[in-house]
């Protein structure tokens, strides 16, 4: 099948991650050249390129579409204003960033550093870590469900679901599975989980 759209990247080097804007019209990429690039899919053009202080490894848009977060090799999480390109906030982690994910309610940002078994939960209102979840196995990928109460983690040793109770203000682990994953996601209405392993095999966990 021929591609329907081609946009030349502005990166000087390898691209390490992509994220799609909530509207579906904008895509962000990050790379080893220390920059993130915004592409307008409706016009097939590059609309902005913003440079940081270190190679960037992961990226995700905030659910409201006004902010984009990029994780760096120097342990920094940079949050940029999508419209102006200005640095809206910066968080410091203990090592190079592996992945990050905004909660759907827009309140929290979950982050994981390279070869780590813990997930840091940042409260965007306070600009600080409010919880560190010790998973026990290496975490390579994350996904919040649509309620912002269930956080899915995946790695070479399996999956977990971490649940936050608003009433108890505490975390529990309702699910742990030995299914390995390099990428994870939630199914419709978060009734099941989809996991992709290194062999390209998709596994469905939960009810259909």
UniProtKB/TrEMBL annotation:
Signal sequence coordinates: none
Tagged with keyword Transferase: yes
Keywords, comma-separated and alphabetical: DNA damage, DNA repair, Ligase, mRNA processing, mRNA splicing, Nucleus, Spliceosome, Transferase, Ubl conjugation pathway, WD repeat
UniProt WD repeat ranges: 8-49, 54-90
Top-level taxon in the UniProt lineage: Eukaryota
GO CC annotation terms, alphabetical: cytoplasm; Prp19 complex; U2-type catalytic step 1 spliceosome
Domain Anaphase-promoting complex subunit 4-like WD40: 22-103
Catalytic activity: S-ubiquitinyl-[E2 ubiquitin-conjugating enzyme]-L-cysteine + [acceptor protein]-L-lysine = [E2 ubiquitin-conjugating enzyme]-L-cysteine + N(6)-ubiquitinyl-[acceptor protein]-L-lysine
Pathways per UniProt: Protein modification; protein ubiquitination
Alphabetical list of Pfam families matching this protein: ANAPC4_WD40
GO terms under biological process: DNA repair; mRNA splicing, via spliceosome; protein K63-linked ubiquitination
Molecular-function annotations in GO: ligase activity; ubiquitin protein ligase activity
Predominant place of localization: nucleus
Location in the cell: Nucleus
Entry similarity comment: Belongs to the WD repeat PRP19 family.
Subunit and interaction comment: Homotetramer.
Listed PANTHER family: PRE-MRNA-PROCESSING FACTOR 19
Protein's name in the database: Pre-mRNA-processing factor 19
């Amino acid at each position: 099948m021929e591609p329907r759209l081609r946009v030349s990247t502005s990166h000087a080097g390898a691209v390490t991650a992509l994220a799609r804007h909530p509207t579906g019209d904008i895509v962000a990429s990050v790379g080893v050249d220390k920059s993130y690039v915004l592409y307008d899919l409706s016009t097939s053009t590059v609309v902005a390129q913003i440079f940081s202080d270190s190679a960037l490894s992961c990226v995700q848009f905030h659910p409201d579409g006004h902010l984009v977060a990029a994780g760096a090799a120097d342990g920094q999480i940079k949050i940029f204003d999508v419209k102006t390109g200005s640095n809206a906030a910066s968080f410091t982690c203990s090592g190079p960033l592996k992945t990050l994910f905004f909660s759907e309610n827009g309140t929290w940002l979950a982050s994981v550093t390279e070869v780590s078994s813990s997930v840091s939960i940042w409260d965007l209102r306070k600009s600080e870590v409010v919880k560190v979840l010790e998973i026990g196995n290496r975490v390579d990928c994350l996904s919040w469900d649509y309620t912002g109460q269930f956080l899915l983690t995946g790695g070479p040793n399996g999956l977990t679901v971490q649940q936050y109770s608003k009433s108890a203000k505490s975390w529990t682990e309702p699910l742990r599975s030995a299914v390995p994953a390099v990428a994870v996601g939630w199914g419709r209405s978060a009734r099941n989980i989809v996991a992709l392993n290194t062999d390209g095999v998709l596994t469905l966990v939960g009810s259909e």
